[in-house]
Amino acid sequence: MPHPDHPNQFALLRQRRFAPFFWTQFAGAANDNLFKFAFTVLVTYQLQVAWLPASLAGLVIGALFILPFLLLSATAGQLTDKLEKTRIIRFVKNLEIAIMALAGWGFMTGSVAVLLGCTFLMGVHSTLFGPVKFAYLPQALSERELTGGNGMIEMGTFVAILLGNVAGGLLVALPNIGPTTVALACLGLALVGRGLAQFIPAAPATDPHLHINWNPISETWRNLKLAHGNIVVFRSLLGISWMWFFGAVFLAQFPSFARDVLHGDAHVASLLLVVFSVGIGTGSLLCEVLSRRHVEIGLVPLGAIGMSVFAVDLYSAAHSLPPAAQMGVAAFIAQPAHWRVVLDLLLLSLFAGLYSVPMYALIQIRSQPTHRARIIAANNILNALFMIASSVLAGALLGAGWTVPEVFLATGLANAVVAGYIFLLVPEYLLRFMAWVLSRLVYHFKVTGDEHLPTTGAAVLVCNHASFADRLLLMAASPRPICFVVEPALLRHPIRGWLLRLSKAIALVPESHNPLAHQQAQVAALQVLRGGDLLAVACEQDGLDLLAQARAAGLDVPCVPLALHQPAHTAWGRVQLQVGAALAGADCNPQRLRQALAALRP
């Protein structure tokens, strides 16, 4: 549904369709981490039991929390698609209140078994909330708001994680009243979250007639097959899961890195977590600014480059540190040699935010609404598997004698390889990155009338310029992928031809030169339109011919005129793209199309 425009992503916090949802998930994420960290500290330092060694407490708690993601994500995705989403949110928050009441009893009586059970139940709570968290946003926000909304959620989640960990550590350490205070804080946050959930607007079911498959194994496999139905979406799921692998390696090693490499105490390890969280939050918020308030996956390669560069530099910075005795935060910050480490970590996590937010938005907007939540559930399953794999692999490397900086280096180099492989499999990321660089860094690019670009459905775009750079600029202006109809000579260029082939451009051979190739190109173009995608041509006559072919095939496809002023071969010059109002396909004749293009002159 249409929503009034907003000046920036923070303005969403004043709107009922977003603010109650944001603060509900913020309270839930904070509560998860307050509970888990307080419990970990409790069994490590205060409430030790023989059957749970302190050295294994964190591992067991983490494993119990993540287990429901593997067992129940598929079911959670089905329920989210079948039921009204706000109803699910309120049920989950009611469940959280019950779990935290039980956990409160566990804290006050010192029952480790009860708290372990509550850890598993909080994992169930988070598993049920996960698909709703990302399936709600596309129903509440427009395409222009989706990147900013995801950025706010990502930022809020990491801030909540940080505050929850800090609060859990501080409250449980209070003399005599620590466990009781934690119990009250957890229950209080659960009650606040439930109160906020009452104000979330309804989000109707997208597949109310769905038959629930309660078998988690077969449904997990079916969800993965659903995701694989859209190869761009599926490979984006793998890309996000890799980001969780990457982040989990760093987060898990902060205590050892702080103690053994930086010679810092526990507070220095906490500082690293703060820096990482601030970086992720900042990168997430920057996505809307850098994307012209569209879903811009061109930021993903930029994020991947930054993640690898600063992971490698973090290894270098760690090796140049002078020997030192153990120090606190003040002494650590006072040494200039440590500033580079902090800056590397900040920028590494900032670029991770740039990497992840557009991928989440892409999955939301490209998934079919009827099974969007199940796609997100598949993503949660893959995320859990990749995080488990990161723990196993990092543990194996450390067990083989690798140092923590060497593990960071290997992860950064592996990120470059994995990201490069994903971008070759899904060249749209690479092409949109080139388009983003061209439109944001090389030229002063301005778009007017972009509201006329169709957000859904097929259309023929007719533009007055046809260079390779022009096509990249058109790509930058549209949040949707564009299939270009080009002259065969362009495909013979070694570099530009390779890139155009990656974009699945269609070579339109003149009918007089090769009637069969001409017909095959028209069939390919019609297939693009039948798929509901955008098709761009540089020649008025080509556009008219394709519209005529579409009408003959029973397709009602509009024509959108576009004009580029001061063409892209003017280095570092001002380039303006004007988008005219769409013309109905049946009414688009040579005269009307020429008039529409002429009206776009500056």
UniProtKB/TrEMBL annotation:
Q: How does it sit in the membrane?
A: Multi-pass membrane protein
What InterPro entries does the record tag this protein with? MFS, MFS_trans_sf, Plipid/glycerol_acylTrfase
Pfam families (alphabetical):
Acyltransferase, MFS_1
Q: Name one GO molecular function term.
A: acyltransferase activity
Transmembrane stretches in the record are 21-45, 51-76, 97-122, 155-174, 232-254, 266-287, 299-318, 338-363, 384-402, 408-431
Q: Does the keyword Hydrolase apply?
A: no
Please list the coiled coil stretches. Answer: none
Q: Where is the signal peptide?
A: none
From the Swiss-Prot or TrEMBL record, state where the protein is found: Cell membrane
Q: Which residues form the Phospholipid/glycerol acyltransferase domain?
A: 459-567
Q: Would you tell me the Gene Ontology cellular component terms?
A: plasma membrane
| Assigned keywords, A-Z | Cell membrane, Membrane, Transmembrane, Transmembrane helix, Transport
Protein name in the entry: Major Facilitator Superfamily protein
Annotated organism of origin: Giesbergeria anulus
